[in-house]
Amino acid sequence: MRGHRPVSSSSLLHPSLAQQVGRVTLILLALLFLFGFLILPVAAVFTQALSEGWKMYRDSICQADVLSALRLTGLVAGIAVPLNLAFGLAASWAITRFEFHGKSLLITMIDIPLSVSPVVAGMMYVEVFGLHGWLGPWLSEHNLHVIFAVPGIVLATVFVTFPFVARELIPFMQAQGSDEEVAAVVLGACGWNVFWRVTLPNIKWALLYGTILAASRSIGEFGAVSVVSGHIRGKTTTLPLQVEMLYNEYNFTAAFAAASLLTLAAVVTLGIKKVLEVTTGLRRGNAEEEAES
Amino acid sequence: MSIQIEHISKRYGSFTALADVSLTIESGELVTLLGPSGSGKTTLLRIIAGLESPDEGNILLHGEESTRHNASRRGIGFVFQHYALFRHMTIFENVAFGLRVQSRLLRPSRPNIRERVTELLHLVQLDSFAEMYPEQLSGGQRQRVALARALAVKPKVLLLDEPFSALDAKVRKELRDWLRRIHDDLHVTTVLVTHDQEEALEVADRVAILNLGELEQTGTPESIYNDPASPFVYNFLGNVNLFHGRLLTELSFEGRAGSAERSIDTAIGFVRPHELELSRNLPADRRSVVASVLRVHAAGPQIRLELSIVGSGRSVAAELGRKQFEQLALVPGDKVFVWPQYIRLFDDDRAMSLLLDQGAGI
Fold first, then answer.
1. How confident is the model at residue B268 (pLDDT cuts 50, 70, 90)?
2. Is B170 strand, coil or helix?
3. How far is A184 from chain B (nearest CA, A)?
């Protein structure tokens, strides 16, 4: 490998004219694509939201319905993310640290929410918890409302964000191995100490990264939530559902104002993700450098 | 603290890692478990540590049954092949870990922890590295930190799993001598696993040789080297020449070999390279074979020769002192008469049957 390196790097440093033209064309194409399909639409959201001025924008957001949708979205994410954090940690720990029957089945199952359409996920919950579903009669007897109520929305969100933390952690913990944990146990640490002092500090970046992905998905989820929510204005509409409702009512400015909030949330999470990538990337780079020496 | 290993067996599926292994390690002893990969030596070490549980048998620590005890309660120091240092902690915190996680009743006070860690870092000659992180240290330094960390909790038993095998040859040798000195200072019962026979023989009070999950031989390094109990041990402890069949008959004396009924034809004979005698003239008083010189390795205190026996074409290795080599002045292509000072014979049931000492007899 090393022997080839100087050749390829010199041809990259001193490209011929044809190579240079090709390179510039490719970069331009990529930029054009990025502009047309990402930057322009995102900009359109904000222009449309602000088309009737700041005051109108503020008023659209401060509507009671939008504020309640914002609160509900926060509540749902606030429940779904910690749940999946706990589940993701437990699953990754079990999968990477123990040998047991059905392990590969569990790994496959974790991926189901990624391969199933969110609409189907919503319908599955309706089938189980709905009025005419399997548990419906029992639930209505006890006056419990799941479908067309907040619990259903939380369930659907938990389902679609199920894999994010675990998928982030499993490869990371597999690569790290369990040597340090075994060392801690031999040194007399109890399980609690091993987890807080050794495991968690080692996986904290990957864990945070997975959590951010889960959070941004739970804020933005539409399909599954749409099926189970019932669209009761001010009660069971999350922010994405609110956007759709406003849009369907031809209230474009208000729809885009709400949409701009979601977009902002996405930009913020991407920003945090990028910062994490840089910091952990630096660490990873160091480790590789050191492994080579 | 003594360790008694009693009839330990361990299987992984159809693979037998350990088959009925028994061994007693005295208090304060340094024992090496030596064997090729897959011989079960690391499994045995992990069973002593409580990191694996045996299918059958017991481990007695200081006469007390501990097989069902959790690894964290055995009072054991363990040093891993790949260090297993806590990468997010400083060297100081790594060494202090075992003290910090002790239950509140046993845990030393902060100043005491600081004192103990400083003392240990001094012992492993890493005083100035306390605030560094593991990734800033070399392999040899890291393994010294790992040893300090293991010693911090004053273990009654120290277990080392191929601790030096990831290091380069020179560092390995230094650390080996250094480990021996530390052991002589602290007298903690120590078990070291290695596949390096030189390391095992050099560092240990006693060596236990494992092969295919069974204990082949135990003894002092000297007795094991001079008196190998089986062809495997003989082979494993250094370079050997193997003779059998006709060649063996040519080289040895049936009269002395066949203390009656055993036939020398079915036996195999071992000769170490330095036990071969070479001469340019036909020796009158002993049996010898003719060989031609293939290669000469003259770098080092001992000259190593690769020979090929004329007729059979079998290759044989010989080692000579520099002085003797200069007298013979051999170059590749030369013909030379070869005979063994000693042949160690084993028959097929692995038990050692005979020791020939031709030189003394003639």
1. confident
2. helix
3. 8
Contact assignment for B78 to A186 by CB distance below 8 Å: yes
Would you place residue A242 in the very low, low, confident or very high pLDDT band (cuts 50, 70, 90)? confident
Minimal Cβ distance to B78: which of A183, A189, A202: A183
Three-state helix/strand/coil letters over B24-64: EECCCCEEEEECCCCCCHHHHHHHHHCCCCCCEEEEEECCE
B 293-332 residues with CB below 8 A of A? none
Of the candidates B279, B339, B330, B288, the residue with the CA atom closest to the CA atom of residue B306: B330
Q: How close does chain B come to A95, measured CA to CA in Å? A: 19
CATH (residue range A60-292): 1.10.3720.10
How do residues A204-232 score in pLDDT, each as one tens digit?
888 988 998 899 889 888 888 888 888 88
Distance of CA B262 to the CA centre of its chain: 33
CB distance A202 to A180 below 8 Å:
yes
Distance CA A216, CA A271 (A): 12
pTM of structure: 0.75
pLDDT tens column, B32-68: 999 998 899 999 999 998 888 899 998 888 877 776 6
Q: What is the ipTM of this complex?
A: 0.78
**B53 Cβ under 8 Å from any chain A Cβ:** no
How many angstroms separate the CA of residue B159 from the nearest CA in chain A?
11
Domain definitions of chain A by residue range = 1-49, 60-292
